[in-house]
Specification:
Length: 774
């Protein structure tokens, strides 16, 4: 067999690399070991490398390796994702230079998960790996190299100690007595000397140093006083019983725990988790980041011996430490936001995903994964139950339960049979007519006064994130919609058009309402800041607090604000959706929704769903204590079926109506969607490129014609300007791909972009199962 010649150039460039390689004779083996490597900062795709004999048995999938890359053979760090043998004699492969990690950072199961993610979310495998592995783990944060010193007994035996200076003699004596290697600071502390004597002894060959990575600090949470389990009510018992059966079946099953707000879902999670712990397994509990409050954590810490919390405020070192504790199996319950779905528990027993409808489970950067989708895959792969909990399940989840793919378990009543709060509407068409409109109408104002008089607290919700230029008639509430896409048309003042941000349909902006002919069809904006000013001036002396992403920037601000509200220091809490979710304050006797329509007419096919969820969730913040509570909803559309369903707490009715609508217009859960967003510095080339991309995708999908109508099973909408048409100086266009077959869409995008020349200053991204349409 021909012996491969030693490549001169490589060895010249990489002194030392070939020290690791076996003698070349070894390649007389019939087979060689080959590692597949992917690069986070390099070309996409995977590359084969030879595993040199000295590394055979040491290179495993999930480890990082240093390998020569490209023409210049610069050394690059990549992830080994596969190791296999193959016959010698094919293409000559470059060898792996070094191992970066002694052990794999990921288990084979987690590695498969990342491979699936890369495939499903149309991104690079290495990008997924770097997402799954926290930076602190990759950089070994919190570990530092420390030298441990011990005596070189042989050298010492040949020496008369008396010849050493006193300090050096003392150091020898200390090490002798210590019977274990010591660090320099430890020696110095006992000997009360500088580093000098240690260095001197080392030079004389009397000390041997061993470099070891140690942890800088160990962090331990103060133990929480333990609490007993609550005795379950009959509904909870029934729910737990069903979940138990799934656990004991030893098979994967997804359970939708659909329970109204305050029905005691958390207690069911806790007792279900206790069940899997009995089998020596671990649990992962995923909650929205804003629910990671001290209150939530305390509830879990009071029930389990060892809980690890993964929140966004951890330092790299803390995260690394938590990761290792979790991987070692010392942690029973991992609680965290979406990325905790990657927690390396060695024996997964169950995954719980609370508030499963929450949009924050979807990551808004590449890889744009949804924690629910990933949890589903992981739970199925590891054969364990997944519990999805919500008072307002996403329609995707609800539909799966309706189809019998998920097990539906219900908690239809609040704890102690507390009634859900009565909800009534305030008709802004009437309240706002005539005089200068205020954010808080007369009936809401009166209710607030009453609530304060009786010692209650108030939550005011105004979910306005600055984007809402839909065209609505203030007289009759009519809203202009796209005939093809059923989403609200957006008013563009400069061109005086009403534009569909999905398909680019547009018409002249009307001057009169097409429905009631009222002149003055427009929309007035109102944000939380203006609302705060109004509340402060009309309720002077009443402590009030605004909560939105702007006012909650500082670290700990959110927890402090909630604490102020809990202790009663703040009487009126106003804010965006941030205050709508999960809070449990028994003194809240009034919830006011300042404008229910802000979410209803967002240019997004999920606008109705968001509105229903928001009103229902915020309504759930009151009536949680013995004082009871009520909800007032201000709206221009009191008769809108979605608003009506929300008022009656009627999720099932809402789901029925909205699913019918989704079906008619071909939206998820009846289709799968991929959104392609094109960004560029200048508008024309960006629009051109978006058009080219759309053409190519249409071609791949066999759609030569533009969409013919709403019922098309597979269609490509756009390109159209994205609702945020300009963001951070970049022009944005998007197109929406819909099909009942998600794989078909993925393939089309892959093929359409495989050899696509992307002009300079233009980027495109793919968002699979998009949540955010702005
Ligand atoms: P959900 O998550 O469904 O909104 P929670 O789990 O927050 O509801 O429960 C609401 C309140 O009811 C909490 O204060 C909780 O401690 C209490 N609770 C839950 N289960 C019981 C029970 N079986 N008996 C008494 N109180 C309970
Ligand atoms: Zn349209």
């Amino acid at each position: 067999m021909a012996r491969p010649s030693r490549p001169e150039k490589l060895s010249d460039q990489l002194p030392g690399l070939f020290d690791l390689l076996p003698p070349w004779e070894e390649d007389d083996r019939a087979e060689v070991l080959v590692a597949k490597v992917v690069f986070p900062d390099g070309p996409s795709g995977d590359f084969d490398y030879l595993v040199p004999a000295c590394l055979a048995g040491r290179v495993q999938p999930g480890q990082r390796v240093r390998v020569p890359l490209g023409k210049g053979n610069r050394l690059a760090v990549g992830y080994c994702v596969e190791v296999g043998s193959r016959p010698v004699g094919q293409r000559q492969l470059k060898p792996i230079g070094q191992l970066v990690d002694e052990r794999p950072l990921l288990s084979p199961a987690m590695l498969r998960l990342t491979q699936w993610m890369a495939d499903y979310y149309l991104c690079d495998w290495a990008t997924v790996l770097e997402t799954v592995l926290p930076a602190g783990v990759r950089h070994r944060a919190g570990l530092r190299l420390t030298t441990f010193w011990e005596l070189n007994q042989e050298a010492l035996a040949k020496l008369d100690l008396a010849t050493l200076p006193p300090k050096q003699r003392l150091v020898v004596q200390i090490l002798r007595e210590a019977k274990e290697p010591l660090t320099a600071p430890e020696i110095q502390r006992v000997a009360k000397c500088s580093a000098g004597p240690i260095t001197a002894l080392h030079r004389k060959g009397l000390l041997k140093g061993r470099r070891v990575r140690i942890r800088r600090q160990d962090i331990l949470e103060p133990p929480e006083p333990r609490q007993p389990n609550l005795p379950l009510n009959p509904d909870q018992q029934k729910a737990l019983e069903i979940i138990r059966q799934v656990i004991h079946s030893g098979q994967h099953k997804t359970i939708l725990l659909y329970g109204v707000t305050g029905s005691g879902k958390t207690e069911v999670y806790i007792q279900a988790i206790q069940e899997v712990l009995r089998f020596g397994r671990q649990a992962i509990v995923l909650v929205p980041e804003i629910s990671l409050t001290p209150q939530t954590l305390q509830r879990f810490r009071a029930r389990f011996d060892s809980v690890a919390v993964l929140h966004s405020h951890l330092t790299d070192a803390e995260r690394h430490w938590q990761w290792e504790r979790i991987a070692s199996g010392k942690v029973q319950v991992v609680i965290g936001a979406r990325s905790a779905v990657f927690a390396p528990v060695p024996h997964l027993g169950i995954i719980v995903l609370d508030e499963e409808h929450e949009a924050s489970f979807k990551q808004q950067q590449t890889p744009r994964y949804h924690a629910r989708e990933v949890a589903l895959w992981r739970a199925a792969a590891e054969g364990v139950p997944l519990i999805l909990g919500s008072a307002t399940p996403s329609l995707e989840t609800w539909y799966q339960a309706q189809q019998g793919h998920y097990l539906l378990v219900q908690l239809p009543r609040r704890i102690e049979d507390r009634p859900l709060p009565p909800v009534s509407t305030i008709d802004l068409r009437i309240e706002n007519s005539g005089k200068k409109p205020l954010a808080i109408s007369r009936p809401l104002y009166a209710a607030m006064r009453e609530s304060l008089r009786e010692g209650g607290q108030i939550i005011l919700l105004l979910n306005r994130r600055g984007f809402s230029t839909h065209i609505q008639c203030p007289a009759c509430g009519y809203v202009l919609k796209c005939p093809l896409c059923d989403i609200a048309l957006t008013h563009h003042r400069t061109q005086q058009i009403a534009l569909c941000h999905y398909c680019d349909y547009h018409e002249p902006a009307p001057t009169a309402c097409p429905h009631c002919q009222f002149l003055g069809i427009l929309y007035r904006g109102l944000g939380t800041q203006r609302l705060e000013v109004e509340v402060r001036s009309r309720f002077s002396g009443v402590p009030c607090l605004r909560m939105d992403t702007d006012s909650m920037q500082a670290r700990g601000a959110y927890d402090r604000a909630l604490e102020a509200f809990r202790t009663g220091k703040v009487r009126i809490l106003l804010g965006t959706q941030m205050i709508a979710k999960g809070l449990d304050f028994p003194e809240v006797t009034l919830v006011g929704v300042v404008n229910a329509d802000t979410a209803l007419h967002l240019p997004d096919f999920r606008a109705s769903e968001r509105t229903f969820q928001l009103v229902t969730q915020v309504a759930g913040r009151t009536g949680r204590g013995p004082k009871g509570g009520r909800v007032l909803v201000q709206t221009f559309n009191p008769d809108h079926p979605i608003i009506q369903a929300a008022i009656r707490h009627d999720y099932v009715r809402f789901a029925q109506m909205e699913l019918a609508n989704r079906k008619a217009f071909g939206y998820p859960p009846f289709t799968r969607m991929i959104r392609l967003v094109v960004r560029g510095l200048r508008p024309e080339p960006t629009a051109e490129f978006a058009k080219l991309l759309a053409e190519r995708v249409r071609e791949q999908l066999g759609l030569v014609q533009p969409p013919a109508g709403p019922q098309m099973p597979t269609r490509v909408l756009g390109p159209a300007p994205a609702p945020f048409a300009k963001l951070r100086g970049m022009y944005r266009y998007h197109l929406l791909l819909q099909s009942s077959d998600g794989d078909q869409l993925r393939q089309a995008v892959r093929r359409a972009t495989a050899d696509l020349q992307v002009p300079e200053n233009i980027q495109w991204i793919a968002d699979v199962d998009p949540i955010e349409m702005l």
